[in-house]
Amino acid sequence: MQQDEGSPHGSASILHADLDAFYASVEQRDDPTLRGRPVIVGGGVVLAASYEAKRRGVRTPMPGRQALRICPDAVVVPPRFEAYTAASRQVFGIFEQTTPLVEPLSVDEAFLEVGGLWRISGSPRQIAETLRHRVREEVGLPITVGIAGSKFLAKVASAVGKPDGLLEVPAGRELDFLHPLPVQRLWGVGEITAAKLAEQRITTVGQLAAESETRLAGILGPGAARHLHALAHARDPRRVRTGVRRRSIGAQRALGSQADPSILRPTLIVLTERVCQRLRRAERQASTVVLRLRFADYGRATRSRTLPAPSGQTEVIMTAALRLLSDAGPLIADRGCTLIGLSLANLDEYDSLQATLPLGGTDSTELDAAVDEIRRRWGSRTISRGVNVGQDPGLQVPMLPD
């Protein structure tokens, strides 16, 4: 962690800034009639829910029908990804005006290192208060900020401080804050791991910290034991990193427990188009196409295909993706599919010469560029493939990012 010569030694100087119920908050900001009401973004599946809906039990990615049974008075709105992208850019502009050390995590959260700014901007807490005020006043959105001496603790602090809060973990008090929390607050503890720990009467971080790494390895395996034992003792040496390029780009969609198999192909087509658009926007091209599936029995499967040459062309990548889906057909028929995702991996810098070489006898570079420009100017729903006409409107938008 970087420290200014005159800054307080060992001070908590990492911020984790996280917009609250981002998509739903944008909808409530733009439509005053939605404020204070339970709001669900997305129809077939819940992409986001306001805190009014979350308090009633609505969660992502819950099927829309289930969400409405839980919260029948919720207002369901279609997603508007252009509005979310614009809001995200405004917020990240404020982050970058706050400090040059910003590490994005997703469209609505980032780490900020502010340890060297105390003479210019004040203490980390003062900086966080200013940041929250600016996001509220300039963008119109609520944001929660956690402050700590490590990235892990800052992220936990923001989660505990939600919604619309500010929570600081003072230096030297890390374990006092961390140990009373449930083990689910540790990165890597999901339902299965939490259940295994609960069988051993380990339900809090403090109880986990009191166990030896050897005993934890017998419960969870050596890798998970080493990772969780370190976090339970607040050990996280990672620094805020800037300028790190992504190694993969992807998206996924939850389909619900009773998904109709006929929706898989059009869903994958939309995912492919959106991921390819993001790939080209980032001026990258991919060598590997990865299909991810989750089944009704909670099992998962991954299938991948390496392209003949790196590509950013939608048709090339879609052909590979649909072949992977076809190959997985018997598995899907036997086990049912509740989630489908697509990732593009082994990314390279965009090579304009290579990208224009015909692969498989076709070159869709100019078509891709034209479609990208139409969607950029007039929105993602202005142009769609025929296979998706009449489908769930939720298919017309990008899904949950990797």
Automatic annotation (TrEMBL):
<keyword id="KW-0460">Magnesium</keyword>
<keyword id="KW-0238">DNA-binding</keyword>
<dbReference type="GO" id="GO:0006281">
    <property type="term" value="P:DNA repair"/>
</dbReference>
<dbReference type="InterPro" id="IPR036775">
    <property type="entry name" value="DNA_pol_Y-fam_lit_finger_sf"/>
</dbReference>
<keyword id="KW-0515">Mutator protein</keyword>
<comment type="subunit">
    <text>Monomer.</text>
</comment>
<keyword id="KW-0234">DNA repair</keyword>
<dbReference type="Pfam" id="PF00817">
    <property type="entry name" value="IMS"/>
</dbReference>
<keyword id="KW-0808">Transferase</keyword>
<comment type="function">
    <text>Poorly processive, error-prone DNA polymerase involved in untargeted mutagenesis. Copies undamaged DNA at stalled replication forks, which arise in vivo from mismatched or misaligned primer ends. These misaligned primers can be extended by PolIV. Exhibits no 3'-5' exonuclease (proofreading) activity. May be involved in translesional synthesis, in conjunction with the beta clamp from PolIII.</text>
</comment>
<dbReference type="GO" id="GO:0006261">
    <property type="term" value="P:DNA-templated DNA replication"/>
</dbReference>
<dbReference type="GO" id="GO:0009432">
    <property type="term" value="P:SOS response"/>
</dbReference>
<feature type="binding site">
    <location>
        <position position="18"/>
    </location>
    <ligand>
        <name>Mg(2+)</name>
    </ligand>
</feature>
<protein>
    <recommendedName>
        <fullName>DNA polymerase IV</fullName>
        <ecNumber>2.7.7.7</ecNumber>
    </recommendedName>
</protein>
<dbReference type="InterPro" id="IPR043128">
    <property type="entry name" value="Rev_trsase/Diguanyl_cyclase"/>
</dbReference>
<dbReference type="InterPro" id="IPR017961">
    <property type="entry name" value="DNA_pol_Y-fam_little_finger"/>
</dbReference>
<dbReference type="GO" id="GO:0000287">
    <property type="term" value="F:magnesium ion binding"/>
</dbReference>
<dbReference type="InterPro" id="IPR043502">
    <property type="entry name" value="DNA/RNA_pol_sf"/>
</dbReference>
<dbReference type="GO" id="GO:0042276">
    <property type="term" value="P:error-prone translesion synthesis"/>
</dbReference>
<keyword id="KW-0479">Metal-binding</keyword>
<dbReference type="GO" id="GO:0003887">
    <property type="term" value="F:DNA-directed DNA polymerase activity"/>
</dbReference>
<feature type="domain" description="UmuC">
    <location>
        <begin position="14"/>
        <end position="190"/>
    </location>
</feature>
<dbReference type="GO" id="GO:0005829">
    <property type="term" value="C:cytosol"/>
</dbReference>
<dbReference type="GO" id="GO:0003684">
    <property type="term" value="F:damaged DNA binding"/>
</dbReference>
<feature type="site" description="Substrate discrimination">
    <location>
        <position position="23"/>
    </location>
</feature>
<keyword id="KW-0235">DNA replication</keyword>
<feature type="binding site">
    <location>
        <position position="108"/>
    </location>
    <ligand>
        <name>Mg(2+)</name>
    </ligand>
</feature>
<keyword id="KW-0963">Cytoplasm</keyword>
<dbReference type="InterPro" id="IPR001126">
    <property type="entry name" value="UmuC"/>
</dbReference>
<keyword id="KW-0239">DNA-directed DNA polymerase</keyword>
<feature type="active site">
    <location>
        <position position="109"/>
    </location>
</feature>
<comment type="similarity">
    <text>Belongs to the DNA polymerase type-Y family.</text>
</comment>
<keyword id="KW-0227">DNA damage</keyword>
<keyword id="KW-0548">Nucleotidyltransferase</keyword>
<dbReference type="InterPro" id="IPR050116">
    <property type="entry name" value="DNA_polymerase-Y"/>
</dbReference>
<dbReference type="InterPro" id="IPR022880">
    <property type="entry name" value="DNApol_IV"/>
</dbReference>
<dbReference type="Pfam" id="PF11799">
    <property type="entry name" value="IMS_C"/>
</dbReference>
